[in-house]
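Below is how a single chain appears once it has passed through the pipeline. First comes the sequence as given, then the structure the pipeline wrote out for it. We keep one example in the README because the format questions we get most often are answered faster by looking than by reading.
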Amino acid sequence: MEGWIKIYRKLADSQLWLSEPFTRGQAWADLIILANHEDNYFRVRGIKVDVKRGQVGYTSASLASRWRWSKGKVLRFLNELENEMQIETQKNNATTLISILNYYEYQGDGTQNGTQTERRRNADETQTDPNNNINNNNIKESTKVDKKKKSIAAKAATLKRKEEFGKSLIPFIEKYSKEMIRSFFDYWSELNKSETKMRFEKQPTWEVSKRLATWAKKEKFNGNKKNTSITNSGNINSGKEPGDQPNTDTAGLKELINSVRIG
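Resulting structure:
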């Protein structure tokens, strides 16, 4: 089934819409309805949060209350939509922004709020019934190309963030062994199915130093940790505990960093 229908936004505030726990399909439609139809902003604890057209500024807790779901169910649902390239989530210190991918396909109507892409698309539409069914195959192909381009761009952005994540671990090589840093990086940089997000980016909170400390304790407990230190000659010797004063031999450290090749 193709085409689209116009839905009045006030439907999302009616008792008929909100009276029972949401179905998955209803939750997806609700996200599209809640998304901003134009750029705007709101404030959370005094912090200004910019919201672009096609974005939803709701936390998982707010959506759980609205949909009458558990927070865990909301997070699993959003993660599924993200893996299917339907949405992208962006977390900051104030809230979570949910971007509806291809929003113009759901809400493009050629009005003054529409984008130029939407206006061109609507100019090419052939209206064969009141539901505005589209019979132009060129539009379908254009949509496929747009999705592919967005997918490629999203994967490239993820690889860039992965490289930056690796660089952020380099300062900790003095304190921990390069083997531990490598295993830590490999685990937390694992990509999701759509290759748009790393494992650590799905965590509600993240502080590298604390995560590394916990990782080191687990390795030591399991008997897998090797204590290392950097000598003045640049060689790695065992016997140094994490937290001891690190050796500051620049040449040896540079050689060690180059050998790790994180990223």
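Residues 110-132, 228-254 have pLDDT under 50 and may be disordered.

See the next section for the split statistics.
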